[in-house]
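Help needed: design a sequence for this.
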């Protein structure tokens, strides 16, 4: 309720309704993946924590299944959580997987992928950001990586919407929200989000926002602190 228009963008208008005790969800893909939900009650939020990002990733098709098998081997783990794929680092993993295929052995991104992947998600190079830049400049393989990431992310957003019945909307947050704002308007993201079978019309009616203010976390904490300090004063 406290965010101003300049702090976010509307991705899907939906049919916003002023429901009492209506639920919202926040999905923040950044270094990892944060998921939380809240209950809106007039001008305040009851925040409910979640570790949804650590649920197991469910492949939707053969390509995602192969990605999961490769990641298990590469990371030497026996399960793949959602945030291993739907996060900034997840975009990097998807690109490394595509680069590992023999047909892509001569791609120019191999060196950057090896530097970033040596210690898994080391910070000497922002490989995921480089993947996005190359994709937007027309690199077909990096575009494939970005499209795979967007599809998985969109599908997750739809799943959370159905799971939580977020009638007051979904908020996309985290470090990737502003960086990938234009892609969130694309069919690569929106179609998987809406593809929820009998609940497609429900998801299509939900407002979806992207938080573009990098200081939104501090802003929210400040609003909460003021609400505690001045419980009888309305925050504007």
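Sure. Designed sequence:
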């Amino acid at each position: 309720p406290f965010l101003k228009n300049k702090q976010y963008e509307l991705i899907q208008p939906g049919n916003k309704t002023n429901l009492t005790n209506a639920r919202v969800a926040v999905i923040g893909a950044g270094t990892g993946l944060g998921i939380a939900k809240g209950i809106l009650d007039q001008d305040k939020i009851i925040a409910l924590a979640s570790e949804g990002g650590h649920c197991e990733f469910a492949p939707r098709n053969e390509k995602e299944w192969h990605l999961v098998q490769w990641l298990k081997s590469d990371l030497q783990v026996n399960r793949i959580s959602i945030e291993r794929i739907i996060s900034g680092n997840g975009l990097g993993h998807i690109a490394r997987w595509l680069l590992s295929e023999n047909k892509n052995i001569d791609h120019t991104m191999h060196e950057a992928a090896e530097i970033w992947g040596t210690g898994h998600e080391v910070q000497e190079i922002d490989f995921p950001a480089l993947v996005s830049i190359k994709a937007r400049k027309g690199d077909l393989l990096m575009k494939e990586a970005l499209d795979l990431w967007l599809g998985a992310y969109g599908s997750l957003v739809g799943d959370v919407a159905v799971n939580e019945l977020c009638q007051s909307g979904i908020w996309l947050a985290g470090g990737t929200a502003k960086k990938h704002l234009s892609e969130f308007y694309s069919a690569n993201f929106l179609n998987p989000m809406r593809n929820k079978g009998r609940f497609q019309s429900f998801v299509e009616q939900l407002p979806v926002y992207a938080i573009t203010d990098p200081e939104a976390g501090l802003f929210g904490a400040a609003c909460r602190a003021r609400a505690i300090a001045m419980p009888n004063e309305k925050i504007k």
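The chain has a mean pLDDT of 90.
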